[in-house]
Amino acid sequence: MLNLGRNNPTHQYRLAADLLESSSAERDLGVLVDNRLTMSQQYALAAKKANGILGCIKKSVASRLREVLLPLYTALVRPHLESCVQFWAPQLKKDEELLERVQWRATRMMRGLEHLSYEERLRELGLFSLKKRRLRVDLRNAYKYLKGGGVRRMGPDSSVMPSDRTRGNRHKLKQRKFRLNMRKNFFTPRMTEHWNRLPREAVDSPSLEIFKTRLDKGLCSLL
Fold this sequence. Notes:
mainly alpha
């Protein structure tokens, strides 16, 4: 039994004659959920697995060429940092840095990039930071929901504000205010500000593929 909420009285429950044990964290569909919904244990577990695989690659692969290491990283390491990430997107800076450190280490392994800064290595390799990749997925999902008439499926946290202004995005979202910071990290609140800052040509893209291209061009200028 997982007790959630600050004011939870943490009652004890029984199933027939058996007393249900209390737990501080439980795995649900591969994601480790703790009783504070901070997902800190999930971040630590994901980083540990990714670092372990990265260490195996470093020991077993002699080549340090980017043509060799980059495909191995994207295929074997990065998926552990992004599995189900739409649900457990990091809320705290320390957790973001914990995951980002794995990619920092991977890019530094590649020959010729050791003395460059992390941002410069990303540019050389044509990669986005993990934080930016999470934002990209959020905005793509927002485009699919909004263009598909699925505003209701996004929940009551955001609503469309039609606008005839000649500047900026004509499909901006109005966001509710929340008392708890945790609520701000749910999907709709965390992506609304970024969606409202997108240029009109991106939001008005006639298809998802065109939106992806225009979105990536905009994200390239933001490291």
